[in-house]
Prior knowledge:
mainly alpha; about 0% strand
Amino acid sequence: YAVEELIAELGAAFLCGDLGITPEPRSDHACYIKNWLTVLKNDKKAVFTAASKASQAANWLRDQEGTA
């Protein structure tokens, strides 16, 4: 589950960057980061896999712009 959360957060960060939105930290981010660190410590390639999937998701969302 932590992997999916990491993918979602990275995707949101990519989209926020594209749109010029500055994300606001939340008080529960520390709990999420703790879970992500467990995943990242167990799999050194996890961050690259997550970033790739997040990029694919962000690209898909960008492609949907104007189709609704």
